[in-house]
Amino acid sequence: MLQDPTLERLLTFLRRSPTPWHATSNMARRLEQAGYRRLDETQAWSLSPGDRVYVTRNDSSLIALQLPSGKLETLRMIGAHTDSPGLRLKPNAAQAGHGWLQLGVEVYGGALLAPWFDRDLGLAGRVHVRRADGRTQGVLINVDRAIATIPNLAIHLDREANNGRALNAQTQMAPVLWQGGGETGFEGLLKRWLYEQHNLESVEVLAFELCLYDVQGASRVGIDGELIASARLDNLLSCFCAIEALLGGDGSQGALLVANDHEEVGSASASGAQGPFLGDVLRRVNAQCGDAGEEGLARLIQASRLVSCDNAHALHPNFPDKHDAGHGPTINGGPVIKVNANQRYATTSETAALFRELCREAGVPVQTFAARADMACGSTIGPLTAAELGVPTLDVGVPQWAMHSIRETAGSQDIDYLIRALTTFVDRRTLR
């Protein structure tokens, strides 16, 4: 199997990004290494033609902006999201019972629950503490070793398990963490990890947002390494491809990457696609670099295009009947244009035509997905961003299997295909 530097960067990004906060931090670090300057939403901004800047909100959403050398008149926007379905701890997480310290969880998003059983689980997220001097501070932690598991019930005790069993996340999915629970309990563990990872002593834990995750790392699978297997491919794979395209372009055009949090739970938050984050940034940028005022902003938005990137359902060889016969994208068959007549995807014939041209110019194959007429269709940040801003939008994505599982699968060739198409978009002089 040949080593591919791009795929190695992807695997590293996936391993180091177990939560939206870690993913955003890693993207910010990559941007800074490439010369991007961080902006603070609470401070005045000073922007000039040719600037490369980024801003985060809630530490879990990010917008990166490449300004043209001249006046800002149009933007090539790429959208993705940083969150993935999974299990998150409740605020009073510790549960003691039958000799074990367990953790109370709630399901985040539309997670496929069965694959969470019998996995080696780590814990990561954001913790806010009060230091000994009275200051409050938020820090990221990542316990990247197997500290918990959700054991399955033996088939001898549930003979109907293979015939389909409803799962109760409240009563059947509390991970076991510690036999006996020790004297300090879960808060004592948190303080231990805070000391180990940040050298924080004598702190009071005020609040946390913590996610369980599978510590099995991302890897290449298949005789020729034709597959990528990992948690959180939906949608960190799109975040990675977007960063690669933004940094790999020639820098001549106005370009923007927005990576929103909370897509998997509806996007209705200050940092979600249904919130004001992107609009706030565009207004501030346009006021300094474009034609100021509402009319100038409206012209900028209508002259721009947004490619919303979120993975698509690949044709499953064991379940081919789950796809419409004419719309079954194949793994390693190229990026997928996603279409839905009921606006679950934001693609129009105009924006689909633009993307087909981009793929033709990049020498990349392209596919189309539409759901069966008798099945419900998922959605993305595309329709929400289009509705909030009015920007012409299309939805595309890399085809994958096992969407929303604890471990998903995509094609290794499709990574390069999407990056090439998005780089062509970022560099394109005209958007019509």
From TrEMBL:
GO molecular function per UniProt: aminopeptidase activity
CDD domains: M18_DAP (cd05658)
Keyword Metal-binding: yes
Cofactor(s) named in the record: Zn(2+)
Keywords for the protein's UniProt record, in alphabetical order: Aminopeptidase, Hydrolase, Metal-binding, Metalloprotease, Protease, Zinc
InterPro entries: Peptidase_M18 (IPR001948), Peptidase_M18_dom2 (IPR023358)
Annotated EC: 3.4.11.-
Leader peptide range in chain numbering: none
Family named by the database record: Belongs to the peptidase M18 family.
The name this protein goes by in its record: M18 family aminopeptidase
